[in-house]
């Protein structure tokens, strides 16, 4: 019962705020920036450590500027996620513009699943929550359920408004195999740029100048089922506007060498970040595992 009450309060709060126009939401974002960055310093030590290790060539002044730009974007991402509770179909398509949706239409037209790599860059929620841009493919996002049941339920509701579905991390293999057997036209998005647990570390590579472990689950599934693989390359055009370029990594994963797909993802994700580092999620403890300790 307590979870239902908490969910009801959260839903009402988010819904009311989502009805505000973007102009007001971004004023709230500016206020939130002051609270999150200046007053609370949310994960500030983690952000500074990550940025300094990733860009040793940058001066202290340059790192400080990057830090400020990141937190401005981070609070924008928060209010943009809240807006998802009431944003219109027309608005989400305009503000999260897919440059070449026809590529996924081609890859899924015979009833195939597609593995889509992407990262915590720009506003990934706006792209993975809406399948309106595609003729027949349904979007699925692999996600880890939140410990707080009310927040988890809220995010599921927000993400599913425009027809996309979530697949729990532990159900990934079973559900993707089922989609392929049933010949469902599906795009399965793996947001795979964060740190795997120690038990799931099977591949290391250089990423932003540091030895980094990567998830290999998406590669194993793609190779086992011989699925096409794409990379979803997000760019932030301006405040509240993003574009997505769908890049074909391989039309057939089965014949690729071990860890080749994971390496391609690491390079594409790195290039995406280096274009404008402020829009990546720097608050995560990306490098908490060290290779020499594994």
Number of helices, counting only DSSP H or I runs of 4 residues or more: 11
Strand content: 15-25%
In terms of per-residue confidence, which ranges show pLDDT below 50 for 5 or more consecutive residues?
A: none
Report the major sheet: 7 strands, mixed
Given the helix and strand composition, which structural class is it? alpha/beta
Quaternary assembly? single chain
Number of strands: 9
Q: Residue-averaged pLDDT, rounded?
A: 93
| Distance between the ends | 44 Å
- Portion in helices: 40-55%
* Strand order, sheet with most strands: 1-9-8-2-5-3-4
**SSE order:** HHHHHEHEHEHEHEEEHEEH
Report on this structure:
The chain is of the alpha/beta class. 46% of the residues lie in helices and 18% in strands. The chain has a seven-stranded mixed beta sheet. The chain has a two-stranded antiparallel sheet with strand order 6-7. α1 packs across α8 and α2 packs across α4. The longest helix has 24 residues. The relative contact order is 0.16. The mean pLDDT is 93.
Key words describing this protein structure:
7-stranded mixed β-sheet; 294 residues; two-stranded antiparallel sheet; alpha/beta; 11 helices
């Amino acid at each position: 019962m307590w979870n239902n009450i908490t969910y009801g309060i959260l839903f009402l709060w988010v819904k009311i705020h989502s009805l505000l126009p973007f102009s007001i939401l971004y004023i709230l974002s500016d206020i939130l920036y002051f609270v999150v960055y200046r007053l609370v310093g949310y994960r500030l030590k983690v952000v500074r450590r990550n940025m300094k290790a990733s860009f040793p060539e940058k001066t202290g002044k340059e790192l400080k500027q990057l830090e400020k730009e990141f937190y401005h974007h981070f609070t924008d991402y928060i209010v943009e996620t809240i807006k998802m509770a009431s944003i219109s179909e027309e608005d989400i398509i305009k503000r999260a513009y897919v440059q070449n949706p026809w590529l996924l239409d081609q890859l899924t037209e015979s009833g195939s699943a597609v593995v889509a790599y992407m990262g915590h860059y720009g506003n990934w929620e706006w792209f993975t929550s809406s399948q309106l841009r595609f003729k027949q493919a349904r979007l699925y996002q692999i996600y880890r359920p939140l410990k707080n049941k009310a927040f988890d339920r809220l995010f599921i509701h927000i993400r599913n408004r425009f027809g996309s579905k979530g697949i729990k991390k532990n159900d990934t293999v079973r559900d993707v195999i089922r989609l392929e057997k049933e010949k469902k036209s599906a795009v399965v998005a793996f947001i795979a740029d964060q740190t795997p647990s120690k038990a799931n570390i099977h591949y290391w590579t250089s990423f932003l100048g540091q030895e980094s472990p990567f998830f290999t689950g998406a590669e194993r599934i793609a190779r086992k089922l011989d699925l096409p693989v794409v990379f979803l390359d997000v760019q932030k055009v301006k405040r509240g506007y993003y574009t997505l370029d769908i890049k074909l990594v391989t039309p057939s994963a089965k014949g690729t060498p071990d860890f080749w797909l994971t390496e391609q993802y690491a390079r594409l994700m790195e290039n995406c970040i280096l274009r404008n580092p402020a829009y990546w999620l720097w608050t995560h403890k990306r490098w908490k595992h060290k290779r020499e300790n594994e």
